[in-house]
Amino acid sequence: METVLGRTVELDPASPALVRLQIITPLSILLSLGANLVCALAIKPGLGQISDDYLTILTPRKSLIGIYWLVLYVLQIGYAVLLAVVRKPETRALIINGLGIRFVLANFVFALWAVFWTLRIFLASEICLLVCGVLLLSIWLTLLRWNTTISKRPLDYILINMPVVMFLLVLWNVDIWQNGLLAFHWFKYVGSDPNEGPGKWEKERGKHAWIIFGIVTAVGLINSFIVFIGRDLVWALASIYLYIALLLKEPKPPQVVISLILVSALQLIAFVASALWYRYKAKQDEGRILLPADDLVEDDAARAGFVSNLEED
Predict the structure, then answer these.
(1) Mind listing the pLDDT tens digit of every residue in the chain (313 residues)?
(2) Which of 45, 68, 72, 238 could form a disulfide with 49 if both were Cys (CB 3.0 to 4.6 A apart)?
(3) CA 238, CA 108: separation in Å to the nearest integer?
(4) In Å, how far are 100, 133, 148, 173, 311 from 26, measured between CA atoms?
C-alpha cells in the first residue's frame, strides 16, 4: 500500500486488483475485437453493410470509421501489453483506480452491441451504447484528476488516456446518435431485404434535419469547450476526423453539412485559442518581479531595526 495523489492504493504487482485486471482486460479486448470482426466480416450483412443499408442523416463513411476503430483497437492492445509489464507505482495506481473494471465492462458491453446491431435489434443496441458511454464518461472524468500529460508521461497518455478518449468520442459524436435514429425508425432503407420497411425518412426528413442540426451543434460546442479548457489536441483531432467521416457520407441536408463544417473549424479555433491563452498566462507569470532572497533578508532586517527604534523612543 502506498499513497499516490493523496490516496492510499494497492501498488503491489501481485495485488489481487492488478492481477484480476491483467487477466480479464485482455480477454475483454479480445472479445470486443473478435465480436466486431466476426459481425463485420463473417456475417452478411455485416456491421458496415447494415450501416449503409439503413441510411440516416448521421450515417458515417464506412471506410473512415473502420480506420478509426483499427487505430483504437491497436491502442487497446498496447494498453493490455502495458498492463502486463507495468512496474511504475503511478501507472499501476492509474490503471487500478482510473480504468479498473469499468473499461473491462465497456468492452464486454460493446461486444454485445455488435451482436444486437447485426441482428438489427436497434433498441437493444442503443441501450448497449448508452451503458458503454456512461462507463467511458466516468473513466474519463476519473482520469482528469490524475492529470496525465503526454509531455510528462507519454506512454501512459498514449496507451491509457488516448484509447478512453477515442472510444468515448466515437460513441459521443457518431454511434449513439446514428443508432438512436435507427431505434426511432428515422432511416431510409436502401438494402435488398424485401421484408424490411422503408422507415420514416421521406415523411419526416425535414424535422429530422433540424433535430440533428441542433444535436451536432450542441455536441460540437461541448467538444470545443473541452478542447479549450484542457488544451486537448487528441480530443480536437479525433472529433474533426469523425466529423469528416460524417460529411463524406451523402446525402446530408444543407443545415447538417453547415453545422458539421462549423463545429470542425471550431475545434481548431478552440485549440489554437487555448494554446495562445496558456502562452499568454505563462509570459505573465514569467514577467512578475520577485525580490531576490538577499533583498528579502535586508528588507526584514530593516523592518526589525525600525521597530526596535520605535520601542527605544
Answers:
(1) 444 445 444 445 557 888 899 999 999 999 999 999 999 999 999 999 999 999 999 999 999 999 999 999 999 999 999 999 988 888 898 899 989 999 999 999 999 999 999 999 999 999 999 999 999 999 999 999 887 777 788 899 999 999 999 999 999 999 999 999 999 988 888 887 766 766 666 566 777 889 999 999 999 999 999 999 989 999 999 999 999 999 999 888 899 999 999 999 999 999 999 999 988 887 777 666 444 544 444 444 444 443 444 444 4
(2) 45
(3) 23
(4) 12, 20, 23, 26, 76
| Strands (E) located in 90-229 | 188-189
The amino acid sitting at 204 is E
Q: Which residues contact 18 (CB under 8 A, 6 or more apart)?
A: 10, 12, 92, 95, 96
DSSP 8-state class, residue 120:
T
Residue 163, preceding peptide bond in cis (omega within 30° of 0): no
Please report where in the chains the cell 447538417 appears, as a residue.
256
The model scores a pTM over 0.90: no
Q: Report the C-alpha gap between 241 and 237 in whole angstroms.
A: 6
